[in-house]
Design goal:
The chain is α+β, with helices and mostly antiparallel strands. It has a single domain (11-223), classed as Peptidase C65 Otubain, subdomain 2 (3 helical TM bundles of succinate and fumarate reductases, Up-down Bundle). The protein has 9 helices and 6 strands; from the N terminus they run βαβααααααααββββ.
Amino acid sequence: MEADSLVSCREDISSLFPGLTPGAKYKDLNSQFSSVRQVRGDGNCFYRALCFAHLESVLHNARALQRFKEKIIQTCKAFSSAGFDESSFKHHLNAVVYVVEQCRADEHEDRLLQLINDHLTSDSMVQYLRLLTSAHLQNHADFFRNFVESPNLQVYCRQEVEAMAMECDHVDILALSQALDICIHIVSMEGDEQHLAHHIIPEGGEPSLHLLYQTSHYNILYPRHQH
């Protein structure tokens, strides 16, 4: 991964484990996935990975891109319901809409990669996703407050979710997948078991993107059957 990049080009799975003797989990991973994009480990990796991987998954589908753009615009309602002032989210929301429009105009992953590696644009997209996660958690507080350990949900959202560079929790992933209606497949290298752990969020969905979770970090995976 280049020093300045936020999301890398596609690389062979072996690039994740330089110099390591492949164990059972690595062999498992290598048999299911052909390549990976590495995402910078700056505390924002989940949001950045999700943003890039979802847009890449719909890049050549104009109708899906249009639906996603409409979904983003509709989230204004979620922000209003959660009591966010328009000035706090509008600029970031517009950045995401701009990127989606650019993807529709130029269906090349090089353009998407260029946009996600532009630090200002990329961070604005991450901030939008963080604010949306916070809004969704607060709008569905009766459900989510049971999963949050902070004194209250608002404190948790302000300190753990909205702040840049804070690592995300399972509850945040669930909230964001619901808010954007995106199904995520997380492959975890954690734990002592010999095999990988697979999590589909929400359960029973058909995932549009695949992320690798390893030592509190997320990268983007590409299944072998996908080209």
